[in-house]
Amino acid sequence: MKATTVLLLVLVAGIQAGTYLDRFKEQYQKIHNSANGYFSKEGVPYHSIETLVVEAPDYGHETTSEAYSYYVWLEAINGYVTGDFSSFNNAWNNLETYIIPTFQPTLGSYNPGKPATYADELDDPSRYPAPIQTGVPVGQDPIYQELKNAYGTDSIYSMHWLLDVDNKYGFGDAQGQCEQGPSENGPSLINTFQRGPLESVWRTIPQPTCDNFKYGGRNGFLDLFVGDNSYTRQWKYTAAPDADARAIQAVYWAIQWAKEKGVENTISQTVSKASKMGDYLRYTMFDKYFKKIGNCVGPYNCGGGYGKESAHYLINWYYAWGGAMPDAGWWSWIIGDSAAHFGYQNPMTAYALSTVDELKPKGATAVQDWATSLQRQLELYKYLQTEEGAFAGGVTNSWNGRYDTPTSNLTSDTFHGMFYDWEPVYHDPPSNRWYGMQAWSTDRLAQYYYVSKDSTVLPILQKWVSWVLSVVKLENGDFQMPDHLTWKGVPPEISVNVGTYTHEIGTASATARTLAYYAAATGDSAAKAAAKAAAKGLLDALYSHSSDKGITIPEVPDQYKRFKEPVYVPPGWTGVYPYGDVIDSSATFIGIRSWFKQDPQWSKIESIMAGGEIPEFEFHRFWAQADVAIAFGTYAILFNE
Prior knowledge:
Blueprint: H1 3-8, H2 20-32, E1 62-64, H3 65-82, H4 86-98, E2 118-119, E3 130-133, H5 144-151, E4 162-164, E5 188-191, E6 207-208, E7 210-211, E8 226-227, E9 234-239, H6 241-261, H7 268-280, E10 319-324, E11 332-335, E12 339-341, H8 347-355, H9 366-384, E13 394-396, E14 419-421, H10 436-452, H11 458-471, E15 473-475, E16 478-482, E17 485-490, E18 493-498, E19 501-502, H12 505-521, H13 525-543, E20 546-547, E21 550-551, E22 575-576, E23 582-583, H14 602-609, H15 622-639
Parallel strand pairs: 3-8
Antiparallel strand pairs: 1-4, 2-3, 4-5, 5-6, 7-9, 9-10, 10-11, 12-13, 13-14, 15-16, 16-19, 17-18, 20-21, 22-23
Helix pairs in contact: 2-15, 3-4, 3-6, 3-15, 6-7, 6-8, 8-9, 8-10, 10-12, 12-13, 12-15, 13-15
């Protein structure tokens, strides 16, 4: 029997708890129940309720720009449900207060003719620090001046990706305050990743965003990452562009729903701020050093771009900016990223910023840039789609992060001269192994098709949906989602296999929402029925796992044997954290995070480190719980059920 037929026959017994809008309300209330602990006292959404969580954030009571973007989206749907968008405005205001850096004191020194000084990305943390190379040509930043003209400021309006909500690390980098120490109350901006594609979270050295050389070693933390003749006290931030794009996407929907309710004037200020964020989000479109896009091989050979020659127009993995502390120098820098993962693309946001009057940014070329980006992103989906329908990794303008020469099988079929990479940016674990990237990104593609009816997108979506219906398992009222994917081949002949399955909440809800948008948009009655049945089956199965804190399914985190993982520190380098842990060549993940030993669940980790099996854990990640609520609400809105 075909998988699509099986899905059509799925009947989830015993779940008659009301409409999907009721389920949204129920899940929303659980997230906002203060006894459940999803938010800090400042109203910041934690990455998870639990503290012993090591993923991209290395502690559950950190948070990310990703979580904030989901918070904005959650409150947008609540506005639709209640007709009151005050919680939506409050979510953005909280985001602006705590995770958009206001301390950017020397960005006025920025020279768009020389955005940054070049340094290679290296293969392993043990190769760092990476030497600064002043002779390598870099390009020009073509948007800085128009952004300054549009907004009258040098500061960048973007979320820094990581926030230590309870100041657990003790840096105390609150807005405008650098290295205030462990006694500082409230959220603190921090950094982690900075040492190449094999620097998993287990091998990171957390560091402050404002490095005054108060903590760390003689040069703070700087000489762990960059090799230079001397070091200057400085500040630096990094954006995760997919999160900024998701927040803007949520604002798009808030506009539509507020108009339906006749209250669009109540969200005008938030909409204006989202438009501004979208203007600065264009830094995601550029090569890391603003070099020319296409066949860019050899850091010295590959020239700097002028105008938009350095724009790949895709949503890249990150962009970053920083500069000297005010009393330490008068210089600053901005970099993009040469690599773009399909999972970060957001055609819905590109469409909104280029066509929706309320969201069109002020920058002189912004609307055209986003219109170009929309088409370029759609091209990328087509270029990366496998024989089966899934999307392979991404493309890069800088092979190995240092403009190396790629292998010959990657040079014959390039994407605007950019090279295919099945695991762009990071390799531990491979960046396109996780199925969740499929649902996250295709959800946005399906939303774009739903609002635009762009016929060029339909065959891409049809192929992906057909694949998903064949690999998602819905049986006896429960579900199994693909987890690890394996890849073979290069464009135009790439294939995918499902390596392992999982009971993951967020990927199930994101898949259900994607299928729901597709079902609501397609004119094919059979395809509509199959996609809608699968979406409903997934949502009903998720609801069967309801608890007083949300949707709960125990899991076995396969990475949790790595708490004793060595963290590379150069021989002879010694430093200290605000809470007293020493950083030296004997460092391990737990050795520089000794406070984990006070965690309520630490005994489980002790058992693992003693050779025991990894036990089950229950996690309540904010993004996943919000994703479930959003999926319930979206299904209700689309189908009035």
